[in-house]
Amino acid sequence: MGHAVEAACRPFARSPSCPRVRARCVRCNDACRTGGSALADAKAIAGVRGVIARQCPCAAFGATNGLATVPGDYIPFAGSIGTCAAPKCDGTTPRIVDPATPNPAFPTFGDVSGGFEVVMAEGFAHVDAVTAEDDANNPIPAALVAFVMRNTQ
């Protein structure tokens, strides 16, 4: 079992009556995601993922000659996560501002206040932006640093 799954289960692993706080255990010594607590563990893990999706701001980085050639390529992901509840987000701006009829190539994303921003590197292929020089032609390093600084303070 992966470390991420074990880490997600760990907060639910201690209780005076049973190692699964949110489960009615059939066998209280069963492993995470097994036995009588498997369903409760799955629900707890889904809940943690939901909290992360709602509370974490996201940034997407693409390259116009790469795999995601326009910002609209990120519509499915942006539409799959809830409104950002992180302190740096305003809590009301959605990840996609016009979700009912987004422009397929250049939608309006929530940007900083909505917790979803997209930065495209014009003329780069998908790996070029990572390996290229950190200069004015490559907007990704500066955007990534700004995103990290804004969301870790």
Blueprint (SSEs and pairs):
Blueprint: H1 3-9, H2 38-55, E1 58-63, H3 75-80, H4 111-114, E2 116-121, H5 128-131, H6 140-152
Parallel strand pairs: 1-2
Please compute the radius of gyration using only Cα atoms. 20 Å
Helix proportion range: 25-40%
What is the average per-residue confidence, as pLDDT, rounded to a whole number? Answer: 79
Number of domains: 2
What string gives the helices and strands in order?
HHEHHEHH
- In which order are the strands of the major sheet placed? 1-2
What is the number of beta strands? 2
Q: What are the low-pLDDT stretches, counting only 5+ consecutive residues below 50?
A: 1-27
Query: Would you tell me the structural class of the helices and strands?
Result: mainly alpha
- Report how far apart the termini are: 33 Å
**Count of helix runs:** 6
Sheet-strand content, in percent, reads 5-15%
**For the report, how would you describe the main beta sheet?**
2 strands, parallel
Molecular shape = globular
Would you give an account of this structure?
This protein has 153 residues and is mainly α. It is built from six helices and two strands, in the order ααβααβαα. It has two domains: 3-53, no CATH class; 56-152, no CATH class. The chain has helices at 3-9, 38-55, 75-80, 111-114, 128-131, 140-152, and strands spanning 58-63, 116-121. The longest helix has 18 residues, at 38-55. It is globular, with a radius of gyration of 20 Å. Residues 1-27 have low confidence and may be disordered.
